[in-house]
């Protein structure tokens, strides 16, 4: 499998003659999370030396099930809110590239515990960038935020990087602050004195196999399917830019390489990685695609749509524009929303049957690369 994947990576230019990622020291904060786990697999396949810093993985997590800890040079367990330990760890690693993913990533949880969300997403980002000031070999920091940082407009456009930032819920507010902090550190400290470039990246609503988070449509559907119980949907008419987890991750990897090689403007910028317009769907429509998938055959689950509006305020319609990434990075989404749904159910089928979690991930990476 590995040889086939490397061939595929080379075929689309992810591994070039100079083998850019080979032996590069790359740190992922939040590597034990859903996106962090998938990114860890990708970077390992690219022959990077991968390091991680995050909280302990949940028992029911992709990181645990796929035994992703084996892919790391070092997997450090620590809280991003603790500056001294973070500084000590990063100094011992001396990474060349950092993907900052450590975060409290859930909107509903941010309402339940706003203080922890702000401390993790804001102070955690400050701590990471403070730590970066002391590093000698670091060249690039990718700060991962969200599509929810935009100020919502009445005409519901597909938001691009030029639209105004603004948020109301604790999660989105914390991520908006993280972007402002990243820009500040880049312009005031890192890019001036250390020649370290910092950028932020925003993705759509990411879904994919191996997500076990609470109050998220993909995990909730899979749990209802596997346990044969009804699924309760709280905001059926909310529109989101749904995309497979591999789409933005390969965007981040492409961006990091170009920044390292100084093939882009050496300044702070934000980048959107979004799906095609046909993936801007209501939750209700996404559920219908799950129910009609070939992987369910005759197996269906009972859906209950809540009539009452959720007590937690969330944006009704959210769309994202990826034109900048397409023009500048030559990046574009590869999967339709129907393919994305089928891949999630295929991943669930494969892991239910043989429990080969890592192999199931590699299989889908290969599929992505050969499309």
Strand runs, count: 14
Top CATH class? Alpha Beta
- Based on secondary structure, the structural category is alpha/beta
Number of domains: 1
The amount of beta strand, in percent, is 15-25%
Number of helices: 13
Mean pLDDT: 92
CATH superfamily: NAD(P)-binding Rossmann-like Domain
SSE order: HEHEHEHEHHEEHEEHEEHEEHEEHHH
**What is CATH's topology name?**
Rossmann fold
Assign the CATH architecture: 3-Layer(aba) Sandwich
- Using the CA coordinates, give the radius of gyration: 20 Å
Helix amount: 40-55%
Q: Spatial order of the strands in the main sheet? A: 3-2-1-4-5-7-11
Could you give the distance between the termini?
17 Å
**Unreliable runs:** none
Query: Largest beta sheet, briefly?
Result: 7 strands, parallel
Shape: globular
Give a description of the structure.
Helices cover 43% and strands 15% of the residues. The chain is α/β, with parallel strands linked by helices and 371 residues long. The protein has a single domain, classed as NAD(P)-binding Rossmann-like Domain (Rossmann fold). A seven-stranded parallel beta sheet has the order 3-2-1-4-5-7-11, with helices on both faces. It is globular and about 60 Å long. The mean pLDDT is 92.
């Amino acid at each position: 499998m590995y040889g086939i994947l490397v061939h595929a990576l080379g075929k689309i230019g992810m591994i070039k003659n100079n083998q850019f990622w080979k032996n590069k020291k790359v740190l992922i904060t939040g590597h034990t999370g859903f996106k962090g786990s998938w990114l860890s697999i990708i970077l390992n396949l690219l022959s990077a030396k991968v390091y991680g810093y995050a909280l302990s993985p949940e028992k029911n997590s992709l990181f645990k099930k796929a035994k992703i800890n084996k892919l790391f040079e070092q997997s450090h367990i620590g809280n991003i809110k603790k500056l001294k330990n973070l500084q000590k760890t990063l100094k011992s690693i001396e990474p060349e590239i950092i993907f900052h993913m450590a975060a409290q990533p859930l909107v509903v949880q941010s309402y339940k515990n706003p203080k922890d969300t702000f401390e993790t997403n804001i102070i955690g980002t400050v701590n990471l960038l403070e730590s970066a000031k002391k590093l000698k070999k670091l060249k690039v920091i990718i700060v991962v935020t969200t599509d929810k940082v935009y100020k919502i407009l009445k005409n519901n456009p597909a938001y691009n990087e030029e639209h105004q930032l603004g948020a109301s819920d604790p999660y989105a507010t914390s991520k908006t602050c993280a972007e402002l902090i990243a820009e500040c550190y880049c312009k005031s400290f890192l890019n001036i004195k250390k020649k370290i470039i910092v950028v932020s990246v925003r993705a759509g609503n990411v879904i994919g196999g191996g997500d076990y988070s609470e109050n998220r449509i993909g995990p909730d559907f899979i749990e209802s399917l596997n346990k044969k119980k009804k699924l309760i949907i709280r905001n059926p008419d909310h529109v989101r830019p749904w995309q497979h987890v591999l789409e933005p991750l390969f965007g981040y990897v492409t961006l990091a390489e170009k920044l390292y090689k100084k093939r882009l403007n050496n300044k702070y910028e934000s980048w959107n990685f979004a799906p095609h317009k046909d993936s801007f769907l209501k939750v209700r429509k996404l559920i219908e695609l799950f129910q009609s998938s070939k992987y369910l055959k005759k197996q269906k689950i009972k859906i209950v749509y809540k009539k009452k509006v959720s007590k937690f305020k969330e944006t009704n319609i959210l769309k994202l524009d990826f034109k900048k990434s397409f023009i500048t990075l030559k990046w574009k989404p590869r999967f339709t929303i129907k393919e994305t749904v089928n891949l999630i159910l295929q991943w669930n089928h494969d892991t239910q049957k043989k429990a080969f979690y890592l192999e199931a991930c590699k299989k889908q990476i290969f599929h992505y690369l050969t499309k």
